[in-house]
Design the sequence.
């Protein structure tokens, strides 16, 4: 068994696609519609057949409440791992991203947090090398 897909709720799928591709550097994997429903996923360019992230339109009142509560508490909706958090921070910041936390050393890792402009906080994590 393996994880093939996970989702993050977004308030605007087109805006989310621009952010996750143009700012973060992910690649669009799937994009098709059935009436008002749009299935939209991105993947890491380093793993084109890896785990997909669905950019799911948040039109569910319960999900909106959950998303807003996570954001208000400063809890990331999704976490990405990197081998160079400081380099990614500089690259992403140069593309206009708003960071809520610059690279910060915590127990066992260095983390940074940013606003995805679609209702979520994202955490970028670099694990410490022991």
Sequence:
């Amino acid at each position: 068994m393996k994880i093939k897909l996970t989702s993050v709720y977004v308030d605007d799928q087109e805006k989310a696609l621009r952010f996750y591709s143009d700012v973060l550097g992910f690649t669009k994997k799937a994009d098709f519609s059935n009436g008002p429903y749009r299935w939209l996923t991105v993947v890491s360019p380093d793993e084109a057949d890896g785990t997909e992230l669905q950019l799911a339109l948040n039109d569910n009142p319960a999900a909106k409440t959950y998303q807003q509560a996570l954001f208000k508490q400063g809890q990331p909706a999704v976490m990405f791992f990197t081998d160079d958090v400081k380099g990614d921070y500089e690259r992403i910041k140069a593309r206009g991203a708003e960071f809520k936390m610059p690279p910060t050393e915590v127990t066992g890792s260095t983390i940074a947090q940013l606003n995805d402009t679609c209702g979520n906080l994202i955490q970028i994590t670099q694990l410490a090398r022991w």
Remarks:
- Residues 5-127 form a domain with the 2,3-Dihydroxybiphenyl 1,2-Dioxygenase; domain 1 fold (CATH 3.10.180.10).
- DSSP finds three helices and eight strands in the chain.
